[in-house]
Every structure is written in structure tokens, then in C-alpha cells.
Amino acid sequence: AASKMIPCGPDATRWKGGYGALARRLADQLEPGTIRFGRRVRRIQRDGAGACRVDGTLRCRRVVLAVPPAIWATRMEFAPDVSPERRQFARECATWCGDWAKVVATFDAPFWRDEQHSGVVAAEGAKIQVWWEASASDQGDATSALAGVGFGQKASTLYELDGPALRRFIVDALSPTFPDVESRLTGVACKVWSADGLTYVGGCKHRCYGDDKLRLPHDLVHFAGTETEAFHGHVDGALAAADRCVAELAGVLDRPPSAAP
Fold it and tell me: Which of 10, 186, 194, 246 has the smallest set of CB atoms within 10 Å of its CB?
């Protein structure tokens, strides 16, 4: 259940292979060719038969958008269109974690446990402000890792670091707490969401997640994504939004397209 998707700490829900394993398991149930990569949706319109046309090529009964509100508000056209007020409200909605950066450092073993350390490190004012254990080696997960997050403009500069520079940054950040971190480090990775044009839009003004202007269907379009839920954040809101969209579609797809509202 979404209510159990605790992100970190002793009661965290962890997936073998990471949350990507969930997407892969779902994808494995689809017919080959169902998922189309590298396709940016720019226009969704109702055709004369009451069905959806996506970019004039893909025809379907309904569309579920699982993208941040500011993305569809700035990059997609609808016909019929949403109201100007709704589009502006979505345009000004900040993407959850949109200006965050996350770093993951993998190690040969969870050596911090041997030191009776939780793995939690706070570094106020640093580019990465908090670290925690992001592995479950005691539950069969072969990866031993510490993850860290930072926020805002300072964290966004991590995007500029190449592999060796990122490794140096992680060693410098963790060495005061774990002096032998460099000799145990086996891999580094970083994601800066503010540098990702598919998730981030600058200049947003509010975080009114779960507002009706973000979540209610428009014509043949349904809206998912964590920002559409008041119970937002991490994986929680995305799962809750998926449940809601399934419920919205349940009674609709049994009717012929011409009868759709």
C-alpha cells in the first residue's frame, strides 16, 4: 500500500533491485512494442468519433498523463483546452523534489554497521545535507550503499561533476565521519533533477499538491503523478494517483467512445 512506502530509516520499504524493479515487472506484462521510448507528447485532442488523438498518430480511448503538472502546462496542447486558470495553476506548481539532487555511493560492505553507526550523516549548509543507509544487505540485497540528498541551487552544481570529480566529492563529504570511506568505495552515481528538462520547470510558486486543478480529469485526459495527490512525495503519491486513475477509468472504458463525457 502507498501508506507503507516509507522512504528511509529503519522501517523503510526496500525493493530488491530498487524501485526500477517495479517498473520492469509491470513492463514485462505488456505486449512487445507497447512502450514507446523517445516520444514526447505535444498535443492531445478529441477526434470526431469521440476518441483521443495523440500527436495526430496514436489513437486511444483515454490518456493518463503521469508527468509533473508544470511539464504538461508548458509543453502540451489539449483540444478542447483546459481553462487558462487551470493551466496557469499547473504551470506554477513545483515538481516534487524538482530542485533536489541525490547521490548514491556503493561500497564493498556496510562497514558503518561494524562501527555501530546508523549511516545517517547530517551536514547543514553542504551541497548534500543528509546521508542515510540505502541498502538492505541483511535482507538479501547484495548492494551496500549510502545515499544523500541536497536542495536548491547549491546542490544543482553537482550536475557539472564527472565521475572522478563526483567520487572525490563523496570521499570529501563522508571522510570526516568515516575515515576509511575512500578504500571501501566501489561506485558513485548522481541525479540532479533541476537539470532534467523532462521533470523540472523553473519559476514555480506553490506546492498545492492534490488540488482539484491538478487531479480532476479533463475531457478524455486523466492526471496522475505524485503532485496530483495530497498524500504526495517519494513513491507514495504516485501509487495513490495510479489507484485513483484506475478507479476513474473503470466505468468509462465499458462505454463506447461516442458516449464518453
Answer: 10
pTM of the full structure: 0.85
Sign, CA torsion 36/41/46/48: negative
Say if strands 121-122 and 130-133 run parallel, antiparallel, or are unpaired.
Answer: antiparallel
Q: 105 has which bridge partners?
A: 146, 188
SS3 105: strand
Quote the CA–CA distance of 226 and 239 in Å, as a whole number: 8
Question: Is the pLDDT reported for residue 223 higher than 50?
Answer: yes
- Alpha-carbon span 261 to 252, nearest angstrom: 9
Q: Specify burial of residue 151 (Cβ count, 10 A radius: 0-12, 13-18, 19+).
A: middle
Query: Residue 52 pLDDT more than 70?
Result: yes
**CA separation for the pair 182, 92 (Å, rounded):** 42
Cell 513545483 belongs to which residue?
94
> What gap in Å lies between CA 47 and CA 161, rounded to an integer?
47
Mean pLDDT of the chain: 89
Banded pLDDT at 236 (limits 50, 70, 90): confident
Q: Report the share of the chain in percent with pLDDT over 70.
A: 89
Quick one: residue 91, left, alpha or beta (phi over 0 = left, psi -120 to 50 = alpha)?
Answer: alpha
Give me the pLDDT at residue 174, please.
96
Cα 169 from Cα 163, distance rounded (Å): 10
pLDDT higher than 50, residue 2:
no
Please compute Rg for the chain using Cα positions. 21
Question: How confident is the model over 100-112, as a mean pLDDT?
Answer: 94
Task: Decide: 103 and 123 in contact? Cβ < 8 Å.
Answer: no
